[in-house]
Amino acid sequence: MTVVDDTVAREFALTVSINGEQYATIVCTPTSLKELVIGFLASEGIIGNQADIQSLTIDDYKGFAYVELNFKIEVSERTERWIGSCCGKSREFYLKQDVKVAKTIMSKTKINPNQIVNLMQEFDNKANVFSQTGGVHQAGLATSANIETTFIDIGRHNALDKLFGYILLNKLPARDFCILFSGRISSEVVLKVSKIGAGILLAKSAPTDLALKLADDLQITAVGFIRNNSLNVYTHGYRILNNGIEKNTQVRGGDL
Length: 256
Hints:
It holds the Pfam family FdhD-NarQ. About 25% of the residues lie in helices and about 25% in strands.
């Protein structure tokens, strides 16, 4: 028998306080917490951009993020909730907030299959924490040629919120980018991409039927099963260019 040390994913509870009142506790990976909090608040529809925040202080020892906004909100009317990291049941579906923040994407950004394959290979190469632990999701922001940044978290929604926060902090036009994702395309992921404002979602795994209905309605190009030299285009294939398809690349899709 061989005994070796194993690397495990870190799990951390971060309580977000808004204007002095506790709003939510997020179970997350304790990295890029500033991006996480800003992306979370934007996803919740509480802020529209970074300028709405007067101050943000993170006490990672106590596990608190203290947010002061430039306006008042009725936190007491919202139920404080515990947002866990468990996939599939990680968040409740808040229809009112989703309708408020989710938007139809009019992005004209396009990409070809060879670029998609290359981006996913680069994305995989950056997945060091996943390789070590097998316990995190990864989300990335990319142009058709290069990956801008990646974030990891034990919660898939948190990884995307960190990406959202990064976009807001750096005042990037989300419509000009693609989003790379390590997991399956769920309805939750599609809604998050819609809130971020990107038109192309590239994922390693399969979609769900509700996710594809939402992607179709929100005009998001959903591409899944990007593995080796194969990919499936599920919705709004007009953003996938017919050029750049190498002989050994398999592309499946009904509306290309």
